[in-house]
Design a protein that fits this description.
The protein has about 150 residues and is mainly beta. It has one domain. It is about 10% helix and about 40% strand. The protein contains two helices and eleven strands. Strand 6 and strand 7 form a beta hairpin. The longest helix is centred in the last third of the chain and has 9 residues.
Length: about 150
């Protein structure tokens, strides 16, 4: 791991050496997940990994605000995508059973495997309040409306 890399979760998953691109692509056809570019801005995702719960608020595409894990307050980030811990990354995607790779202030963070994803539709009436105070810590809401087409 280079000096610009950081693993905020202690679990590391390394694919077997014989793992090929074809096998990875075939696996992706069977994994549930969400493509960030298909979500409306201000959509909130709750992403549970083995070690942490993240609240991810979509700004635009793969640019997000996130809170959870090593980030107690809303923090601007860019989600690179989902991986098995190797060099293959499905960009702009979060998938169950896979690691999430994202960048905060130029540092690469790799999570433990995702165990669940839930989505909340944007609440436009709260949008200004949520984004005006990103430096203040807030509790993650337990109420979640699961979206049908995520």
């Amino acid at each position: 791991m280079d000096s610009r890399s950081l693993s905020e979760d202690s679990a590391q998953v390394t694919p077997p050496a014989h793992e090929s691109m074809d096998r990875f692509v075939e696996l992706m056809k069977r994994v549930d997940g969400v493509r960030l570019s298909q979500l409306e801005p201000l959509t909130t995702l709750l992403v549970w990994t083995w070690n942490a719960l993240y609240e991810v608020i979509v700004a635009e595409g793969s640019n997000v605000l996130l809170q959870g894990g090593a980030f107690p307050e809303l923090t601007p980030a860019h989600i690179d995508g989902a991986s098995m811990g190797g060099s293959l990354v499905i960009t702009g995607w979060i998938g169950a059973g896979l690691l999430v790779e994202f960048r905060v202030s130029g540092k690469r963070i790799v999570t433990a495997p995702v165990i669940a994803i839930a989505a909340e539709r944007p609440d436009v009436s709260m949008a200004g309040e949520r984004l005006q105070r990103p430096g203040q810590s807030r509790n993650i809401r337990p109420r979640v409306e699961v979206m049908e087409d995520v």
